Amino acid sequence: MNESPNNPNSPETPEVPVPEPGFVHRMSRTQKILGWIWLPMYLLVVPLAIEFFNYGNPGVLSEGTANLAAYGVSAVALGLIMFRYWRADFEALLDRPGRAVLSALLAMAVNYALSMAVTLLLYALIGDELENPNNAEMINIARNDYGAIKAAAVFLAPIVEETLFRGLIFGSIRPKHRVLAYVVSALAFCLLHVWQYVLISGDFSLLIYSLQYVPSAVALAYCYERSGSIWTPILLHIILNAMAFTVIL
Question: Do 165 and 188 meet the contact criterion of CB atoms below 8 Å apart?
């Protein structure tokens, strides 16, 4: 009797390869909406509220403690909003730890290569008088409040920034347009580190220092995209910030 072509045990039935899963964004629609609502709160409302508190209560919060408080408020708010997203992505990390490690290593290589290119570009444009205002501010704060600013920059900032800039911005755009996701998330992340100095000083030439954050913005987005878990770029961001903190201080 002839084998049926619909019989899965038939030797004539070809094996269909199972494709590797593409980018998976586990953030729910409600979480995205609440995340987009919280983004301007993180950028403007929380810092201004802390500044207003400091103005009315001088000397209560040091600059380092104020930074720690701002990131702490956002971390708590995002924890309430994104808990299920964080949990799902943490389970994904545990399911494929080898992929997470490889993604982080490749992202570090991307970051190093792009950092060298950006450094050469900046030297060509403005010479050796590089003075990143964000780094200078960090150094000034650390002289008086090392522990608080280190906790904010190394531990809380990666959780908050990765959830918003990679998880929310990159993750929301990536299913529709990959290149646009990289461009928009990188642009937002780079401007995050310099816009306030431009606003305060009125010196738009400071925008050039946003180029220094392009390598990490691209590398962290690549790390998230390839690993499939937001916790991989969070951990990588912690490592990068710890290394940068050691260098500049």
Answer: yes
